[in-house]
Design brief:
Helix content: 10-25%
Distance between the termini: 22 Å
CATH topology: Alpha-Beta Plaits
Radius of gyration: 12 Å
Number of domains: 1
Number of strands: 5
Order of helices and strands: EEHEEHE
Structural class: alpha+beta
CATH class: Alpha Beta
Largest sheet: 3 strands, antiparallel
Length: 77
Amino acid sequence: MKKFLLQEAVATVGPKGHRHTIIRQFCKGCRICVEFCPTGTLDLDDRFKIKVAHPEKCIACRMCELRCPDMAIFVQK
C-alpha cells in the first residue's frame, strides 16, 4: 500500500497508549469523524485534513475509524 501513497501516514501515540494513524492523502475533510467522536479528540487542521487535537481525551472507541468513508484514520489500543 505504501507505493500508492504520495505522503507517509502520520502516526501519533497518546499518553494512554492509543495509536492514531492518519492517511492525510485519503482525508477529504468531511468532518464525519470529528462529529462522531464522543470525547472531542479530533479536529481539522488549516488544510481541512484530520488531526488529533487532544490525544489525552481518546478512549479508543474507534468511532472515527468506523465512520470514516475514506478509510483515512485507524486507531489501535
